[in-house]
Amino acid sequence: MARKKGNLKFGNEYNMGLLTDLYQLTMAASYFEHGKNEIATFDMFVRKLPKNRNYLVAVGLEQVLEYLENLHFGEEDIAYLKKQGIFKDEFLEYLKEFRFTGDVYAVKEGTIIFANEPILRITAPRIEAQIVETYILNQINFQTMIASKASRIVHAAKKAAVVDFSPRRDHGSDAALKAARASYIAGCVGTSNVLAGKIYEIPIIGTMAHSYIMSFDDELEAFRTYAKTFPENTVLLIDTYNTIEGAKKAVIIAKEMGAKGYKLKGVRLDSGDLVELSKKVRRILDKEGLDYVKIVASSDLNEYKIAELIEKGAKIDIYGVGTEMGTSKDAPAISGVYKLCEDTNKEGKLVAKIKLSEGKITLPGRKQVYRISNKNGEYKKDIIALEEEILDGEPLLEKVMENGRRLQEKEKITEIRKRTLENLARLPKKYKSINNYEAYPVEISTKLKILIEDLIKKYGGGK
Fold it and tell me: If we measure between CA atoms, which residue out of 339, 344, 334 comes closest to residue 361?
């Protein structure tokens, strides 16, 4: 597949070449000066799952592949680095022609993963593999974190739909875009973020704010005016003043719309006792033959609140979730890392490498993850093995880039979303609990265990 042309930028302002930690470039400069640019392999994985997480949903690969295909340092980038007075001219000349030429193996986006399982593996000349670390972690850590949170919320909502309402609380514009993407992949039905809808082809969904209602002298006038503007897409916010009275006025609007051949799509609750209010509003609507009108609820929701609402019998069809999902508020970071697992030795041979730092031991060598299912198709356990091992089960890592070029076309977001939901359906119920932690079994193959033991002996032990 031919390399795409064009610059990868954020906000039409900056090339992504400099979106890296300084020490990636200083290490690269030292490698370059001393001719140490042999082939090396790095794994990206999550050390441990965040609190109250039984699984993660891997997301972010698409942005990584786009970055790797287009990565370069422009004239302005080189000029900026030169101005810092850190780097020698020879290294800056090298960066002018820099491109990523390595191979990438990864799990497909939307795949459920667990601690220590490689999400992505890069084999490339050392400098290339080193410089890309920061961006890879930036994209996969964040999107995986949000998708995992959103997956819990979608699961808690059961048959009700979930919409991303988070952009106003997300940590910056890029985060708002990626949060919308990740949450849709995890099972949300749409987003309020219009730009994300355009970029990622996600359905956009919205209602109205209290300020719209307050801009009119009369609530009924506000409802009627909005319905005239959007006769085929009207959802009325009914709690600005008095929710029950608002519901009664919504009935008037629904009947007026019905007389003209239109249907009121829904009403929204954004405050108060959502259980009792939703029940009362449902009764008001159903009594008037408006059983087709959906009830939308928002107001600082998360998976725990949604589960409680459902348990208490709330009559809610759609949940709009913002802050808690877009920031993964209860677990706002995951411990995704990128570590050397294979290197070229002085004889030019690729050999496995291990890190033995206390509490941070890594798994050496190129690896594959095999997912074992039971006779009913449910996931039973995973085995992390060496790449050359062939085990029963489904191998999760596949080659997605060769010599710096993608091997497949960009995947449709609807297909990624479908995969996520299929993965979740095959995960046993006990691992999907939002309240109880139960570790999914992840084993290490016998050959990988032996390699670990040999390397521990070789490098003098470790804890």
Answer: 339
